[in-house]
Amino acid sequence: MATLLLLAVLLVIACRQILSQTGGYFCYPLDDTFIHLSIAKNFALHGVWGINAQEFSAASSSPLYTLILATFLKAGINTIWMPFYINVCFAFLLVVMTDKLLQRFSLPASIRCITLLSLVILVPVPVMVASGMEHMLHAFLAMWMLYLSVAFLTPDNTTRNQVLLLSLVSGLAILARFESLFLLAGVIVAGIYNRRWAQTSVLLVLSLIPLIIFGCISVQHGGYFLPNSVLLKASKLAGGPSQLMSSLQEIVVYKLLYGNNTMVNIFTNKYYPEGSSSLSGTTVVRLLLIIPALIVLLRPGNDNVNTISKVKQLACIPLINTFLHMALAAVGWLFRYEAYLLALDTAVIAILLYYYFHQLAASRRHYSLLEKSAAAFLLLFVFAPLPLRALGAFHNLPGAARNIYEQQYQMGRFLQTGYQHTAVAANDVGAISYLSDNRILDLWGLGNNTVAAGKLHGQYSPQFLQKFTVQEKVKIAVVYDTWFDSTLLQQWKKVASWKISNNVICGGDEVFFYAVDPAEATTLYNKLTAYKPLLPPGVVVTYYPIHL
Predict the structure, then answer these.
(1) Total-model pTM
(2) DSSP state at residue 47
């Protein structure tokens, strides 16, 4: 109850901070939230899974979350607050499920309370809720998977219903975010270790069925088996065994040494301004140190051999998950990608520490001041980044919401009021596709299969994009200059730009408006001029000569 009360208070504070930065308009700190809303809107209203009502495109890396949003929209619940409210529910469920896991290993109420409070603050849950993304759904399902996997930690057979329930939750977790495959790998290893061959095989097959169904539907509609966002980030790993090994080596070395920013550039050639991404990498790497250390130090007594064996096996599941995530996936970007890792690892570390200190108390050994000091230093070294990371997330949240409101949200409102049913090229497609009814052509490929195919097959170039915009009869483009080659941009007429200050989340602080069709330049200029009084006061507008 204390944890849920703290969470409620922190959520109120987070909302007030966001509203104070956006003039009273609630806005999410990520454009990706609007991608989910856009696909959900088109699926609910038109039966089309995509950012446009006219074409299929798997731009969402969380099909389950988008489907949940679509269900509410289909029921007539259409409010900008809807993702926030859904996340509040899953955040509460995450706390409850974590408590059930701790109770399963007999942790006393005081330890459970401290653990749950730590989880809420360190994940940090309020920031994830305010992001409006799928990460609370993912964390809840991942924690539920871990809770149900306890039945696989002994050689004894489990019931058919237990296997089926774990398979169902695993399948849903994978559709919530594909990183859940790493967690499934940990559960499969536990099943194999306990020689649960038949039940482990059933779990593996059934857990993959929802993913296979989604993949087949996607291919049937002209897309790929996996969402474009997943494929484009993983394209570096698709060049055969030699390139796979080279990329894995590159990933591990760069992530351990430099954090996430470098890896984002390696995978997507896209600059992310969030300088604290390296803190995410440092945090997760140190968790990879403390969990195996506690597993090694934990020794069973004569009366708790089976319990300690379960605890160690349980800890190995998120350990495998964390290692695979660090090797193959991203961290950072408002600290959201590793949020579920922090939730799982916090719960497991609490269980390990409880039994470790219980073991020390039972041994009655006297420890010298030097030994105690060394142990305190090591714990401080390992856990120091956690509160810093949480503070960074809370600090960045209001500014990130302001950035999205002043840039992407205003772009969407401008297109909503100034253009109707027009082909518009862009690289950030969430807010503009959700707020307007224009046909948005994603030049980055997440929301367009043609561009995604061009990237995956090595055809992506300025010439490719120019041919694409001509074929699609694009009238205007709203892009970051720094994301594209000047060869492409010089073929368009630059009309104006909007620049925001103190950027912490957007892909660029200045977005440019181009007339791809030269005949549209004057019209675009006039519409931008008419919209200027509606812009927030912090946005700096620059116009460029269009009659040269």
Answers:
(1) 0.90
(2) S
Angle at 378 between CA 277 and CA 382, to 5 degrees: 20
> Residue 396 and residue 504: Cα distance in Å, rounded?
7
Give the pLDDT confidence of 16-71 residue by residue, as tens digits: 999 999 999 999 999 999 999 999 999 999 999 999 998 898 888 899 999 999 99
Neighbour order of strands in the sheet with 476-479? 439-442, 423-426, 476-479, 510-515, 493-499, 540-543
pLDDT tens per residue across span 4-27: 999 999 999 999 999 999 999 999
The per-residue pLDDT for 456 is: 86
Strand 476-479 vs strand 423-426: parallel, antiparallel, or unpaired?
parallel
Q: How confident is the model at residue 232 (pLDDT cuts 50, 70, 90)?
A: confident
Sketch the domain layout of the chain as residue ranges.
2-395, 396-543
Residue 409 contacts residue 431 (beta carbons within 8 Å): yes
CB contact set of 108 (below 8 Å; sequence gap of 6+): none
Report whether pLDDT(366) > 90: no
What is the per-residue pLDDT for 18? 96
Locate 395 and state its tokens: 């600090």
Place of tokens 């980030």: 233
> Could you give phi then psi for residue 493, rounded to 5 degrees?
-100, 115
Asked whether 31 and 144 are in contact (CB, 8 A), the reply is no
Burial tier of 486 (Cβ tally within 10 Å: 0-12, 13-18, 19+): exposed
Three-state secondary-structure class, residue 543:
strand
- Is CATH 3.30.1150 what the domain over 396-543 is classified as, yes or no? no
**Cα separation of 150 and 172, whole Å?**
18
**Which of 108, 130, 115 lies closest to 19, judged by CA?**
130
pLDDT at 2: 86
Rounded to the nearest integer, the mean pLDDT of the chain is 87
Give the H or E element holding residue 492: none
CA gap 349, 459 in Å, rounded: 47
Helix or strand holding residue 540 (H, E)? strand 540-543
Which H helix or E strand runs over 519?
none
Angle at 426 between CA 35 and CA 83, to 5 degrees: 15
Tally of residues, the chain: 548
Q: What is the DSSP string of 414-478?
A: HHHHH-SS-EEEES--HHHHHH--SEEEETTSTT-HHHHHHHHTT--SHHHHHHHHHHTT--EEE
The Cα 529–Cα 539 span in angstroms is 13
Secondary structure in 3-state letters for 233-276: HHHHHCCCHHHHHHHHHHHHHHHHHHCHHHHHHHHHCCCCCCCC
Instruction: Write out pLDDT tens, residues 416-444.
Output: 999 988 999 999 999 999 999 899 999 98
- 166-202 tens-digit pLDDT: 999 999 999 999 999 999 999 999 999 998 999 999 9
pLDDT number for residue 303: 67
Q: How far apart are CA 218 and CA 171, in angstroms?
A: 17
Structure tokens at 487: 């060869």
Per DSSP, 539 falls in state P
At position 215, the amino acid (one-letter code) is: G
